[in-house]
Amino acid sequence: MAGSNQKQFDINSVPKYRDLPLLEGTEERHAWDVFGPGDNLGTINYLTPEHVLESMKLVKRGVSFNLDLPLDQPERPQDGSEGRVSYTHNIYRTRGGGDDSLDNFYLQSSSQFDSLAHVRFGSRGFYQGVTDEELDTGRLGIDHWSQHGISGRAVLIDLPRFVGPSFDVHQRTAMDGPMLEAIAKKQGVEFKPADIVLLRTGWMEWYLNSKDQGPGRMNVTDPQPGLDGMRETAEWMWDHKITFFAGDNIACEALPPVPLNFQHRRMIPLFGMTIGEIWDFEELAEDCARDGVYEMFLVAKPLNLPRGVGSPINALAFK
Ligand code: UVW
After folding, report:
1. What are the helix (H) ranges across 128-251?
2. What's the number of domains the chain is made of?
3. CATH at 16
4. Domain annotation covers residue 285
5. Which domain holds residue 66?
6. What residues line ligand 1, using a CB cutoff of 6 Å?
7. Per DSSP, what are the bridge partners of residue 200?
8. In a domain, 2, yes or no
9. Each residue of 111-167: pLDDT tens digit?
10. If 238 and its partner were Cys, which of 17, 35, 64, 205 is the partner (CB 3.0–4.6 Å)?
11. 264 CA to middle of ligand 1, Å?
């Protein structure tokens, strides 16, 4: 029996990318009719109770891996030049013990989910054509995913280990469908419908350990590896029924973006697919390299924040 916010959804009913309608006047296809009118979940609908039960069987050793960076990392410039600034943590010592609050807490400044209210497709609006006014009434807020829960099978794709010693974290290596499949094959794992795909690029590990890191150094114009931005890759992810991708880099996607070919503008508003950014896969990747198991059960719990645009991830992977 599904929880009150969990719909039964038949993933076999999802049309192929080529059968999705074109967004009028564009060459982009949209999935606005796939999950039903008024839907606020998008591809999170793939995470049905049956899928969760099946995915839980991947827990063999009972070990868990934290996927969140410390909330104060990476550090953001306080002058607002990056938009997001680092929070100030106020700790109040009280007679009874303590209390605390955060000032200027940008919900997307550390390991994060982008909600469907994060990116609009120009004048066509947000996912399902939702308007700014409708967002104000509660459509597409991060709270919908919080109430549903995000749990299912995840596959780690470890790009640096796949490439080996010649890997360059400053090169714009764009992972498209064939490359994702080649990495998965070498790792001995297959993609399955409803997968959450974790893309390890090693970029955040480099950044946090680099003498160059620090406020103002996270630059989206600096080349870095990540998900490929081309339409063929959007077709691959849709036809493979990927629930979402999460990366350990700035945007999950390879940077700098190619104009008009940045998956943010397809995945979020057209597919209803969240994007995870700045996740931490280091400990998990070490373990996968050790035991050769690249599939796992993942649980994440974004904030139950009405109208939230993004959220910390609160994510664990279990093996
Ligand atoms: C970028 O597009 C760089 O990331 P975000 O989704 O965090 O705005």
Report:
1. 132-136, 143-148, 159-163, 177-187, 203-209, 231-239
2. 1
3. 3.50.30.50
4. yes
5. 11-75+104-318
6. 108, 114, 220, 250-251, 264, 277
7. 158
8. no
9. 999 999 999 999 999 999 999 999 999 999 999 999 999 999 999 999 999 999 999
10. 17
11. 8
